[in-house]
Design a protein that fits this description.
This protein is of the alpha/beta class. It has 17 helices and 34 strands. The strands form nine sheets. The chain has an eight-stranded parallel β-barrel. A six-stranded mixed β-sheet has the order 2-6-5-9-14-12, with no helix packed on it. It has a six-stranded antiparallel β-sheet with strand order 25-26-29-34-31-32, covered by helices on one side. A hairpin with a 5-residue loop joins strand 27 and strand 28.
């Protein structure tokens, strides 16, 4: 073994020369553990599969794709952490495999993969590092990041060449292990809700944060899958009326080193390392396979309540970060095969801002992702996926390509093309912003809806052209290729950014608790604090903020498209101005259920549930086709019409002029399509008046043929909403619309 000084000199010299060195190593390997032999087994399926062979011998077949490797060892660990190794000698189509008799469910395992250490060409094999099986269905143990889990010497004095110095210290004592899971559940007793897209109302929530403080959930179940399955949690969802929960990442994930050093963790979970394993920390029943059954029971309970389960999935990058990141799985299995590398193969192509990007064009990476997706649908029961930074998955060699292999495979897959597919249609790379560009089958998070609605209610829109498109389904973005209004997932807030209450309470981010000098998080919040920054005792400001919340929620739930709420927004949840609470696993992020004890916040919940119920009752609010804006009957009544405060239809010039008041007429007589019995769909017609002025204004109600009279259904100027029937106004007369409010009226006659 050369000295540290000699190794430094060698690494520096080779880096300066641009050479491709042989291994520069650091540390010593432990004594070799005992070994056992394996039968040949089979190359498929990948991962660890328990089975009983034709000779009645029970055991587990292990299969790992590692194309460029020179040797693969399976490592088995007993309850005391003692390791036994099994050399996999069979290699079929780049897959190393073997069947080990006697290995039963609950067995913990990992892999060691040997090969060339040559970071200059992207080769980073290091058999001293225990690697997580990419196909592991359960993971036991916590990820911490001591120096031993890095394939290179993390603390090498010359950081510019640190990633080229191999670290030969054993990582096995410091990393979680995969767990063999036996699963023969056929889901025959499960009944998927299969809610049509147009009828969907999505509720984005965090498994831990939603349940952590819920007083109706037993303490031992809070923060877990079992907690979300508890009747007290489901009761809130059904009372609210949502049709689907969109769970923040539940794939096994790891925490970043910079967070651990500050005493924080990755709360959101956008740092995946195991695409088949439910995150073990969310399990109440155990982590040696029990988390799989607990997750399934949660899905069943939600399905029984008529609620679909959508997973937020992170296939664009992994927790291994860039060349200075840890070696946990794919980096040590075949770095060049799994990740996009730059021309300088020491470096990673980073379209995600997280240090690496999976190379989805590679067949084995595409297989990993699609196998994972099918697994969660067919064996874990989920109903759809929201793809984080989906544009990164749609890149071919460099550019975003809507004919990319990933999108093509999804389109023809008999399982995946039937589930809900939601794209976050951007990444941070060149040309990564792709809102409106994804093909049919896909819906998209519509950030243009978010921005237009925020700007309108803070008085920052120069005119109402963009707002008109957003309220009516964003036909300018989605009326092509057979796409429908429900291609637009409308949202005003998401996990990333201000909560709805903070949006009307803060104009600037307050992320000091993250420990990054308030540099993290966006500065483009499009927020208005209603006259005071942060919490205040001024009742005038507090009352205005509650009204603004009612305005925003009412606008969202009356808009054409698929509305998405964020858990807690219906309760007035606050993150104290933190618009990037990704590392706040505490009361900043958890739902405060005591808010329901406050009459003001309880009223907000009741309004939200009432608006969702109204949406469910009236198909005119959840159209399956775009409005035409044309008259479909002799009386000249159109399916969609826009009115000024004078009660006159808007002209082209009105769209280009500043306006504080906008009237939107939705006709229930001209809804395309037929019901399940083949009959025409008929509904009430509605007039929504949105007024963002700081003084009340007169609005003339359109007369015949639009209506004979109007009944008030919702008036956001009121803290408490009366149930229908409401006040009736004669068509052609004026009504006073309170400052900064929405009035929804049902057409009579």
């Amino acid at each position: 073994m050369t000295s540290a000084a000699e190794q430094r000199a060698v690494a520096q010299e080779r880096a300066a020369q641009g050479a491709h060195p042989e291994a520069v190593v650091y540390g010593a390997r432990r004594a070799t553990p005992p070994t056992v032999s394996a039968r040949p087994g089979t190359p498929t399926p990948l991962g660890a599969r328990f089975r009983v062979g034709p000779d009645a011998v029970a055991g587990t077949n292990f299969a790992l794709w590692a194309a460029g490797a020179e040797a693969v060892q399976l490592c088995l660990f007993d309850e005391r952490g003692r390791e036994t190794r099994v050399r996999l000698t069979e290699l079929t189509h780049e897959i190393w495999h073997g069947f080990v008799p006697g290995v039963m469910p609950g067995q913990r395992y990992g892999f060691r993969v040997d090969g060339r250490w040559d970071p200059w060409i992207g080769a980073r094999w290091n058999p001293a590092k225990l690697l997580l099986d990419p196909y592991a269905r359960a993971v036991d143990g916590e990820f911490s990041l001591p120096p031993e889990v890095y394939g290179h010497v993390r603390d090498w004095p010359e950081q510019q060449v640190a990633d080229t110095v191999r670290d030969d210290r054993d990582s096995a004592p410091y990393v979680p292990k995969g767990v063999v899971v036996h699963d023969d559940d056929d889901w025959s007793d499960d009944h998927r809700p299969k809610t049509p897209w147009a009828d969907s109302v999505i509720y984005e929530l965090h498994v831990r944060g939603f349940t952590r403080l819920h007083p109706g959930i037993p303490e031992k179940l809070r923060g877990t899958y079992a907690g979300l399955a508890h009747p007290a949690a489901i009761e809130h969802l059904t009372a609210l009326g949502v049709t689907a929960v969109e769970l923040l990442p539940v794939h096994q994930f790891a925490h970043e080193d910079h967070l651990l050093r500050r005493g924080l963790t990755n709360y959101w979970g956008y740092n995946s390392i195991g695409y088949f394993a439910p995150h073990a920390a969310y399990a109440a029943s155990g982590t040696t396979g029990q988390q799989v059954g607990e997750f399934k029971r949660m899905v069943r309970a939600l399905h029984e309540a008529g609620i679909e389960v959508i997973l937020d999935v992170v296939y664009n990058h992994t927790a291994e970060a860039g060349e200075l990141g840890p070696t946990l799985s794919l980096k040590g299995i075949d770095n060049r095969g799994y990740y996009r590398l730059q021309n300088d193969a020491r470096r990673y192509a980073d379209y995600t801002g997280c240090g690496n990007t999976l190379h989805v064009v590679q067949p084995q990476v595409l297989r990993l992702i699609t196998d994972s997706l099918r697994y969660w649908v067919t064996e874990m029961g989920v109903d759809g996926f929201r793809f984080d930074l989906a544009a990164a998955l749609a890149r071919s060699m460099h550019d975003v390509d809507m004919l990319s292999p990933f999108l093509a495979v999804i389109a023809q897959d008999p399982v995946l093309r039937r589930v809900k597919l939601i794209a976050e249609p951007w990444d941070i790379g060149s040309g990564g912003y792709q809102v409106g560009a994804f093909p049919p089958l896909w819906t998209e998070w519509n950030d243009r809806y978010r921005d237009a609605v925020r700007d309108f209610w803070r008085g920052a829109l120069p005119d109402v052209r963009d707002l008109g498109y957003r309220l009516s389904g964003s036909s300018d973005l989605y009326a092509w290729g057979g796409r429908r209004p429900y291609a637009s997932v409308n949202f005003i807030t998401a996990h990333d950014g201000f909560t709805l209450r903070d949006l009307v309470s803060y104009e600037s981010k307050h992320n000091e608790a993250n420990g990054e000098g308030n540099r993290d998080g966006t500065n483009d919040n499009r927020a208005w604090n209603c006259g005071a920054e942060g919490e205040t005792d001024k009742e005038r400001v507090r009352s205005l903020r509650r009204r603004q919340l009612r305005n925003l929620l009412t606008t969202l739930l009356l808009s054409t498209g698929v509305p998405m709420l964020v858990a807690g927004d219906e309760l007035g949840r606050t993150q104290r101005g933190n618009n990037n609470a990704y590392c706040q696993d505490n009361e900043v992020s958890w739902l405060d259920w005591t808010l329901l004890e406050d009459p003001g916040w309880r009223a907000l919940f009741h309004l939200t549930s009432r608006l969702i119920a109204l949406r469910h009752r009236h198909p005119v609010l959840r159209r399956r086709a775009f409005f035409s804006g044309r008259a479909h009957s002799a009386d000249g009544l159109r399916d969609l019409a826009w009115f000024t405060a004078r009660g006159e239809e808007m002209t082209e010039g009105d769209w280009y002029a500043p306006a504080a008041t906008l009237g939107m007429y939705l006709s229930g007589r001209d809804i395309p399509g037929r019901d399940e019995q083949g009959a025409p769909i008929l509904d009430d017609s509605f007039l929504a008046v949105l007024h963002t002025g700081d003084r009340s204004a007169s609005f003339v109600l359109p007369g015949p043929p639009w209506a004979e009279s109007y009944e008030v259904v919702v008036d956001t100027s009121r803290e408490e909403q009366e149930e229908a029937p409401g006040v009736v106004h004669t068509a052609g007369t004026s009504v006073m619309v309170a400052e900064r409010s929405v009035m929804l009226l049902r057409v009579i006659g």
